[in-house]
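User: Hi! I have a protein structure encoded as tokens and I'd like to know what sequence might fold into it. I'm fairly new to this, so please keep things simple.
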């Protein structure tokens, strides 16, 4: 059966409230959770930027859910530090953490003061980070001199089983590349034809038989007008295709490029409806593409009503009709 989880958006919800949300989600029947990991939000209206790794320790302790986290090692984060953080959580909470790795966004990475490299260099840097992290998980002492530098690093505390390293991709080309090195794929909801090509590219690139994960952006409210208003107010800075989200540096930049995004434009990337059964139909259609795990991100800042309504009306129905 497809697993349905909740996405914890640190850019929109403060860490204390977000912890309460994942606890409520578990009580309501969500199977898992995944977490963002950004230094800043995409809009002043989103308004938060908590440190995800601190929060993950609390969330894993406060729930029994498995968690994934999206991370970009190589600039803001040294790969040895991410390996150490992941190893610590895996030792404390065996089998409950996976890490999704991507090449990052300038909005988070520019804080180091280092130049923001072009995509092909970021790809090469990420592969070096993956190699470093896997060697550290294996107990090796690692030295490396390339796009990242490591001097005799060794993890003295590490779990029996390292976390899966899942590749993040939103394009067909990147999905094919990810298939060659990752333990799975995480992507976002897009038009069905493109999602089919992304899944095929991942499998053809070496991902056949590996886990497939999907993050779904949605907006629920008691009426369609409110649901659309929430989506437009909170998520209109997030509707752009690469390279725009990769290369903008400040929340003001995102807010400026989003000035002309209309409310009706939100429906292309966000599932907007006040009807729980409409969401059921959408999610069944997406799960039919072969995704093992689907993570639901209500793009509003208030998560309570979304969790309550989906726990009562959406998740039980998905358990009945979603493909095995």
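Assistant: Happy to help. Inverse folding works backwards from shape to sequence: for each of the 324 positions I chose a residue that suits the local structure. Here it is:
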């Amino acid at each position: 059966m497809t697993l349905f989880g909740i996405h914890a958006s640190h850019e929109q919800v403060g860490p204390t409230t977000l912890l309460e949300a994942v606890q409520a989600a578990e009580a309501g029947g969500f199977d898992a959770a995944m977490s963002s990991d950004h230094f800043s939000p995409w809009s002043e209206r989103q308004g938060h930027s908590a440190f995800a790794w601190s929060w993950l320790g609390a969330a894993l302790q406060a729930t029994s859910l498995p968690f994934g986290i999206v991370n970009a090692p190589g600039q803001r984060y040294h790969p040895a530090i991410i390996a150490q953080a992941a190893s610590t959580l895996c030792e404390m909470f065996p089998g409950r953490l996976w890490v999704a790795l991507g090449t990052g966004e300038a909005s988070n990475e520019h804080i180091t003061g280092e130049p923001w490299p072009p995509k092909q260099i970021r790809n090469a840097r990420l592969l070096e980070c993956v190699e470093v992290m896997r060697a550290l998980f294996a107990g090796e002492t690692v030295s490396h001199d390339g796009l990242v530098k490591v001097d005799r690093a060794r993890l003295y505390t590490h779990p029996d089983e390292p976390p899966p390293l899942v590749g993040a991709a939103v394009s067909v080309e990147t999905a094919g590349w990810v298939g060659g090195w990752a333990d799975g794929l995480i992507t976002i909801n897009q038009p069905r034809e493109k999602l089919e090509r992304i899944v095929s590219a991942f499998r053809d690139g070496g991902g056949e038989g590996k886990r497939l994960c999907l993050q779904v952006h949605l907006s629920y409210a008691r009426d369609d007008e409110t649901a659309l208003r929430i989506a437009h107010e909170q998520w209109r800075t997030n509707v752009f295709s690469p390279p725009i989200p990769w290369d903008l540096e400040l929340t003001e930049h995102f807010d400026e490029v989003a000035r002309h995004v209309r409310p009706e434009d939100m429906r292309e990337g966000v599932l907007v409806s006040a009807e729980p059964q409409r969401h059921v139909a959408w999610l069944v259609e997406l799960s039919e593409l072969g995704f093992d795990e689907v993570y639901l991100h209500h793009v509003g800042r208030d998560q309570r009503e979304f969790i309550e309504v989906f726990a009562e009306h959406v998740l039980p129905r998905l358990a009945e009709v979603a493909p095995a």
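A useful reference point when you look it over: Residues 8 and 300 are 11 Å apart (CA to CA). Feel free to ask if any position seems puzzling.
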